[in-house]
């Protein structure tokens, strides 16, 4: 019984933590492709190749269901993987849809035509690759009409977080929020469209001000996974042990992960 959680690096740990809290008995195998992070500056083919390799490793580790806890991989590779790569007895799910359903006040699987929703001005903060894919706007357009989305590609933030340089990460977040505010002065909602960004959530909220509702994915994805497993209990694979795998240096990655989650995390080589 194990579910796989994949991210280019440490960001998916924010999702892992929320899933663990929601489903404490579910074994989770985490894989961070730290050797190749950040993905946000790579092209779609490159992200596809790296993501399929990593997901295959999670299948080998006994996971039949893998969550791409990485918006960049979900935006640039998921659809292609689902159409032509995922074996019939496995599932790979992304992180976009739960977030957009929350923003558009929809229940899981509500496929009714797009309609007007309460929020009209949404700021999207994401990696350059996610922004240029326009996957968020595409998924939103299936569900809502009349929502103006202004996207800000937050170059450099993931690198700074992966390096553990939180002072630089904070300065970059503030300058990206500034740039966004010049394009959209009064968003009602802001989406943190990268799983690394919840580690900087307080800075985003502080820079955006108290009137902006900041949506981050971890709890929404955990809730949606719990719901999915009730409907598809067989998708919990045969793996029984929780573990943390990395393509990077396990010692270095463990120390950063322990710093971020404020509990001991020990990675092993993928
Ligand atoms: N944390 C990932 C995301 O949600 C990827 C960041 C990156 O590797 O650039 O987009």
Automatic annotation (TrEMBL):
| Biological function | Provides the (R)-glutamate required for cell wall biosynthesis.
Which InterPro entries does the UniProt record give? Asp/Glu/hydantoin_racemase, Asp/Glu_race, Asp/Glu_racemase_AS_1, Glu_race
For whether the record's keyword set contains NAD, the answer is no
Superkingdom as given in the UniProt entry: Bacteria
Quote one Gene Ontology molecular function term.
glutamate racemase activity
Q: What is this protein called?
A: Glutamate racemase
Give the EC number.
5.1.1.3
């Amino acid at each position: 019984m194990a579910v796989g959680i994949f991210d280019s690096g440490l960001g998916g740990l924010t999702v892992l933590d929320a899933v663990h809290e929601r489903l404490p008995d579910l074994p989770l195998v985490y894989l961070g492709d730290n050797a190749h992070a950040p993905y946000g500056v790579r092209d779609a083919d490159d992200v596809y190749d790296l993501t399929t390799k990593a997901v295959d490793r999670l299948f080998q580790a006994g996971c039949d269901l893998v969550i791409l806890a990485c918006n960049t991989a979900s935006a640039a590779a998921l659809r292609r993987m689902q159409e032509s790569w995922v074996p019939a007895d496995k599932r790979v799910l992304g992180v976009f849809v739960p977030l957009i359903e929350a923003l558009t006040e929809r229940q899981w699987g509500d496929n009714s035509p797009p309609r007007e929703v309460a929020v009209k001005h949404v700021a999207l903060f994401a990696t350059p690759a996610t922004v240029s894919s326009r996957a968020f706007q595409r998924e939103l357009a299936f569900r809502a009409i009349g929502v103006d989305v202004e996207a800000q590609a937050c170059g450099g933030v993931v690198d700074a977080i992966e390096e553990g340089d939180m002072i630089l990460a904070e300065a970059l977040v503030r300058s990206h929020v500034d740039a966004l505010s010049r394009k959209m002065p009064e968003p009602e909602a802001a989406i943190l469209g990268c799983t690394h960004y919840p580690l900087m959530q307080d800075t985003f909220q502080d820079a955006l001000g108290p009137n902006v509702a900041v949506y981050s994915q971890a709890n929404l994805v955990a809730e949606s996974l719990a719901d999915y497993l009730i409907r598809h209990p067989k998708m919990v694979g045969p793996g029984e042990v929780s573990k943390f795998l990395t393509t990077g240096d396990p010692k270095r990655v463990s120390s950063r992960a322990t710093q971020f989650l404020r509990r001991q995390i020990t990675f092993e080589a993928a």
